[in-house]
Write a structure and sequence with these properties.
The chain is of the alpha/beta class. The protein has a domain of about 240 residues: HUPs (Rossmann fold), CATH 3.40.50.620. Helix content is about 45%, strand content about 10%. A 6-stranded mixed beta sheet has the order 5-4-3-6-8-7. Strands 1-2 form a two-stranded antiparallel sheet. Strand 4, helix 3 and strand 5 form a beta-alpha-beta unit. Helix 2 crosses helix 9 and helix 7 crosses helix 10. The structure holds adenosine-5'-triphosphate.
Amino acid sequence: MKPCELENCEEKAVIKRGKDGRAVCKKCFIELFEQDVHDTIVKEKLFTRGDKVAIGASGGKDSTVLAYVVKTLNDKYDYGLNIFLLSIDEGIKGYRDDSLEAVEKNRIEYGLPLKIVSYEELYGWTMDKVVENIGKKNNCTYCGVFRRKALDRGAELIGANKLVTGHNADDMAETVLMNILRGDVARLGRCTNAITGDENELPRVKPLKFCFEKDIVFYARLQNLEYFYTECVYAPNSYRNFARNYIKQLERLQPRAILDLVHSGETVAIRKEASTQIQTNCTRCGYMSSQPICKACLLLEGLNTGNYQIGNSSKKKPREPTETNSVTGENPAPEKSTSGCGGQCACEAKGLSGLSI
Ligand SMILES: Nc1ncnc2c1ncn2[C@@H]1O[C@H](COP(=O)(O)OP(=O)(O)OP(=O)(O)O)[C@@H](O)[C@H]1O
């Protein structure tokens, strides 16, 4: 084993960092990783003393590491945060029920309060029921749209003023690439922001923005963090998966490719007309929306009436108002991106999902 590459360290190297390729010992790896997250928090001004933050906890590696690191740094640097875990139970047997067990263990181990909000209580539908009705095609669209709103609702119930998610550098690079491939200029302009959310919206912050997925997995292993690892049972091959595989190949050739892509997204300048979306409130549920009725309410209407085209139509043609819907009759443009599906399905291709949850 080679010695740790950090100055003044005499330990043996045990890991090669994904981010910069340096071979380091366990202690230095952990310190560098935490320092990176702390730097992002400070430079991007993610938190203010007294913030009540809801950490989106799915039980997966990213959010498990996120919760652990934010808590550790809050204690170490005295950020003055009041931290809660927030889990959304989509109602997927053999997937979310298992991952919620991991969150429950984290709750006990980290001593953080946990709030679980389910699709069933919010919408009267579980994803298992949705798939039973509509099949697997497009189901990620429902899941993503419902999750975005559920996270907001959950944060509201907790009284949180910020929502914190585990999006990492690999996620961001994939998103930049997909937005370029789709020519989605508006999303390209905001997809790498460490803080997203418009006026009147709960800010969503991403402290792991510059952390490589590889390093997140190493960190979890070195700290013996328990997390759940299984793909969603309803996630088919997706556009995002292709982007992910492509980036993994690039990373093998040139690890900096991930940061370069994130940097490209950050530096791209977008004309104001292309990047702005007028926000209003859904006339049914009051949730913020770029259309008179939010995407979640439209999808629910489709589920409840058995007309699964509602909220799903990809063609921009005028939509017939329904009995319960006295809106403009316009076919709604997709809500702002919601990577609820983790970008796992065809909703990506329609621009319904992808980046910031
Ligand atoms: N069911 C959920 N409940 C709470 N938060 C969630 C949930 N699903 C996703 N999130 C939040 O959104 C982030 C990105 O979600 P995504 O689906 O891309 O998962 P991921 O990259 O596999 O992350 P993780 O490893 O944390 O599951 C997660 O890190 C987490 O903070």
